[in-house]
Amino acid sequence: MDPAFLPGDGGLDDRVPFLARLENEDGTALRKLGREMQFAPRSPLIQQNEPSTHVLLILTGWTKVTASAPTGYQALLALRGPGDIVGESAAVTGSPRSATVTALERVRAVAIDHRAFREFLSGCPSAAFTLLGLTAERMRASDRRQLAHASMSVRERLATLLLDLARTHGRRSTGGVEIAVPLTKQELAGAVGASREMVQRALKDLRDRGVVSTGRRTVVIAQPDILRRIGRLDA
């Protein structure tokens, strides 16, 4: 691994997908309970505040998890991809959906009725404990992001986010490391708890310094070491 992209514990991704945590036979049994669905890029898989009817196991493609405030501000809470589960919290508690899940690219997923999912967990304690552990890890990552938002400037938060995305979604290109997941500037702003205008200004400063280059839903990191210094990650 490039030393400029060190593992983090407060990123937007699950460190290990849900399906990869299950025993092979448990994962196979769970998938057999559902039906496969496909979603076009930028189409919703799950809508905030809707009643829960099913969970989704993502097979291919990446999604974003967002929540909207009454003011209209939309926060980017997480990225979920192959092997991840979404909609499980509402399915287990019976509460309305707490967030919206939207495809960032073409997505294939298995939809499992919420009642069948709860019955599966009741009959498979190891899977239930696995889900509990995943939930705890997600809460810990969320807590770490909240702490970062409280203690860092927008510029520092953005630098840290870009490094984390490069670590989890980076691919080598002629200009450096391209973040492969297609996020808009508004979505980047939602991930760091800032306005779109503030993130645009921060990105312009990074572009002017040759640290990054940007395009439509693309960011290429040319100088990760400078991002690490901005994010105070060298200490």
From TrEMBL:
Keywords from the named record: DNA-binding, Transcription, Transcription regulation
Superkingdom of source: Bacteria
PROSITE patterns: CNMP_BINDING_3, HTH_CRP_2
SMART domains: cNMP (SM00100), HTH_CRP (SM00419)
GO cellular component, one term: cytosol
HTH crp-type domain residues: 152-225
GO molecular function terms listed in the Swiss-Prot or TrEMBL record: DNA binding; DNA-binding transcription factor activity
Domain Cyclic nucleotide-binding: 18-121
Protein's name in the database: Transcriptional regulator
